[in-house]
Specification:
With 219 residues, the chain is mostly helical. It has helices at 12-34, 37-60, 67-90, 113-129, 136-160, 173-192, 202-217; strands at residues 97-99, 106-107, 110-111, 164-166. The strands form two sheets. It has a two-stranded antiparallel sheet with strand order 1-4. Strands 2-3 form a two-stranded antiparallel ribbon. β2 (106-107) and β3 form a beta hairpin. The chain is globular.
């Protein structure tokens, strides 16, 4: 059984934090869609900072910290990063692609921040699925589904802004299968981790980030 406090208060401080993150993402989406040259370039430069800021705000409201939770953070980061590094250099498990310069410092041709992205998305998907009155395996599968749907809307926008580029400009089915596999492994660790799973901002931040990419798909 996952640990969760009965009450997840959503007080004024949390509302301000969520409002700030929402405003930041909506403004970012608008600028990426409609700004030109210099402003567009600055907005792209702020993408990694936005990711780090969102993660820090989210972790501020993690209900409890423990060795198990710390190990999940480390595991999610390195599993995600290693999978991406292997993917970029071998074409497995996602397919043939390469990263641009938008996401910052790279190691083995892979931005370090991509590990943080995997942790953040898995944490959010895991938190949402942890509310289900179901067994761990079902929760993991629901979390994997959320991760893959998120990636489906993220991929075209990531290509559009040169976060990364797919060979021949085509996103292969292999990518989504790879995402499902890596997500399953990380969410397995999440749902079997012995820490309190509650975070009042998690489901809302997932929605805000999802809308950030989905909105751009329609313009």
């Amino acid at each position: 059984m996952s640990k969760r406090k009965k009450s997840e208060g959503f007080g004024p401080e949390q509302k301000i934090a969520l409002g700030l993150i929402t405003l930041m993402h909506l403004a970012g989406a608008g600028l990426l869609l409609f700004s030109k040259s210099g402003v567009y370039a600055i907005t792209l430069d702020l993408v990694p900072i936005q990711l780090v800021f969102t993660t820090l705000i989210l972790l501020k409201y993690q209900k409890s910290w423990s060795l198990s939770f710390g190990l999940f953070i480390i595991s999610a980061f390195f599993i995600g990063f290693i999978a991406e590094a292997v993917g970029v250099n071998t074409g497995w498990p996602f397919g043939e692609y390469s990263y641009g310069e938008v996401l910052g410092i790279k190691y083995f041709e892979t931005p370090l921040i991509i590990g943080l992205n995997w942790f953040l998305l898995a944490y959010l998907a895991g938190n949402i699925s942890s509310y289900l009155k179901a067994g761990r395996f079902i929760k993991i599968l629901v979390g994997v589904f959320l991760m893959v749907i998120f990636d489906y809307f993220m991929e075209p926008i990531a290509m559009k802004h040169a976060f990364w580029t797919w060979k021949d400009g085509y996103i292969p089915v292999q990518n989504y299968l790879g995402w499902a596999g890596v997500s399953f492994l990380i969410l397995l660790i999440y749902h079997f981790g012995d820490w309190e799973k509650g975070n009042p901002l998690a489901r809302w931040i997932f929605l805000v980030m999802f809308l950030f990419f989905m909105i751009q798909n329609f313009f």
